[in-house]
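# step 3/5: fold
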Amino acid sequence: MKRRVVVTGVGLVTPLGTGTKKTWDGLLSGRSGVGPITRFDASAHAARIAAEVKDFDSALWFDKKQVKNLDLFVQYGIAAAEFAVKDSGLTITEELGERVGVITGCGMGGLPTIEQYHSVFLNRGPRRITPFFIPRVIPNMPSGHISMRFGAKGPNLSLSTACAAGTHAVGEAFRHIAFGDCDVAITGGTESVVCDLAVGGFGSMKALSTRNDEPERASRPFDLERDGFIIAEGAGMLILEELESARKRGAKIYAEMIGYGQSSDAYHIAAPPENGDGAVRCMKMALNNAGLNPEDVDYINAHGTSTPLNDRGETAAIKTVFGDHARTLAISSTKSMTGHMLGGAGGIESAFTALTLHNQVIAPTINLENPDPACDLDYVPLTAREMSIDVAMSNSFGFGGTNGVIIMKRFG
């Protein structure tokens, strides 16, 4: 019999603020974290806006040598994990350490470091490449560093499934605990690739919004005038814990994790099918895994990227899965405020889902001023909504056609 799994800690580093309270308050107030790119000269790019983390102080977590040798995606992941562990009140002793896993997701790893040292290589030769180049780049470094930081000696994994990576990490952590491989998991996603190569690459695919003159209005999921996603950075980590373990130590419980689904579109490297077939199968798998009927779900944190194809396809998939109940569901896209954190998005949105259940309030979809007729569901436009929420779902869909869905329920 599967063991019950609960969320006992949340840690966030996002464009809305470093720390969970800053981010959550920003979400509920409908504040956008999007602005002009400051990390590099973006004047040659069609898209010159991004959702950057603006208030992160590396010196609060790392000494000067560590700052120099850790790419930002690793720093964000460690900091979010620190927030989550502190929030959980968990003390990871030598004995407990062997039962604590770390499972994280990341889409692109240390691309800014690759960009930097490719230039060093071309201009100054191979001998000037830092010996920390490889450890700064590889996507499993957040998991590795987090495990070392906390003495977490259980399962240690890093998933790289594009924009579904964070959700897959949380789902796999849930499974590891449910089936007894560990009792606690530090899990989520992290990403930081606001750099020339990433913006140029996504720009060449026509995937990014070019509403450069109105950055705060550029991410507009489900709106008729949406023109692409906003590249973003940040990290979201959760503490998942076996229920009896959490109860024994009197832990605060945000929500219970009850379902996980994954699927493949088997269709296209970047575009979802119009009917959202892969997303349909993924949501159905998560519902089946949770032992729920579609009408049991109250809220969906949508993938909601603000791209023409995703938002139509996701809407179609929700209608297929939920039937008439789709009209009574509350749905919102927090990417309207945070932008799209790629492999980090699912970790952050899993955290938002737990906070939604705990606080019984739904963050809005901002900038939804002129709804696309093909996107005709209740996307909680413009302002936050307090309502009774017993079950919530979070969707993530990635390039390569990979899909991840998690389901949580209100605890108590």
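# step 4/5: annotate
The chain has one domain: 1-401.
# step 5/5: archive (pending)
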